Fold this protein.
Amino acid sequence: MQFANGATYLYDHRVPGREHVEAMKRLAVAGRGLSTYIARFGGDYADKVE
């Protein structure tokens, strides 16, 4: 996932888990709520891509 500030983070079913990744994908497609969701539930990410 790439954010407005240019940072790119990898989320997968291992971290933060399948349920959270699927929810984040739905929010990304909808175009709203993703940042709030990540702040509440998805702070753990698999890797930061440089």
